[in-house]
Amino acid sequence: MDPIGKKLLEIAEDNLGYTEKGDGYTKFGDWWTKTQDSDHNPYFKTAPWCDMFLAWAAEKAGVEDQAGQFAATVDHAKWFEKHDAWGTKPEPGALVFFDWNGSNDIDQIDHVGLVEKVDGKTIHTIEANADGYKLMRKKRDMDTIVGFGYPGKVEVKQEKYTPKHAAPAPKVESLTGASPRSQTGEKTSTAELPAQEALLTGALAFVLCGTVALAAGKAAAAKAPTASPIRVRKRGKHHRVPVQMPVDLTPADLDAAENETTVMPALSLAAAHEAEDREFWGRIAHFEEDDELAFWDSLHAESTLSSASKYASAPSFR
Fold first, then answer.
1. Contact assessment for residue 96 and residue 115, using Cβ atoms and an 8 Å cutoff
2. CA geometry: angle at 107 spanning 106 and 113, to 5°?
3. Among 157, 112, 161, which residue's Cα sits nearest to residue 12?
4. What is the pTM of this model?
């Protein structure tokens, strides 16, 4: 089934049984007069309404561009022909055009309806102004059919969407504040504009790169620790051997250097810790404080014993 024609059929089924008034007035003709006819000619309010109903249904279904909107059946058929959507094969959802005289002449078309289904050579339709006054179902044969319009085959050109608030690109002279002129004072040709545009593009790119770099620097600074995470070991009793300082270096210089120590980059902290630990423990590995303490303890014990023996062997004067 033609997908666009299917939508028209749904609208037609919902309005089956609609009957024109005694003077030929229909709401579809009234709608056409008020919304489609630029002259608002009251003639259409009581005119034959088979095609005006289809125009009304197309608007209700939102398929005006595919189904077309006409009050004259001949013009409608030629419109399908112009859009390469015209043929002689019956298909559900297609618009069917009739000539009661049985000709195949598109200029002799008298009536139009919608194909609901095809049963062999019998065409089941829904037609407005059928029998001259009503929206109803009908059975037709191919003898009076001139052709079919297929709304699903009508190609609708999609216009490129441009937001209403979008403004045209600025001209070079509007950015520089003056019209482009050559050194002689004459206006430059359009061939000279690309150089100015390239210069402007380069400046914008430089500003953009600087902005990105500044943002990255701020982010890195935010992550850096506010206090130095480096562990500093003060000199203690484990430094048994005095360190010989250079002649031109004083203790005051060492204190000043320590106060001005900069924070090591975050990525090298782990390596610095490991290197510092290796150096420290390497320097004190040859000290065995426990053995040295044992030596002094034994020396103290010997001296204590000798003193006791000396006093024990002395003669008594009592």
1. yes
2. 60
3. 112
4. 0.52
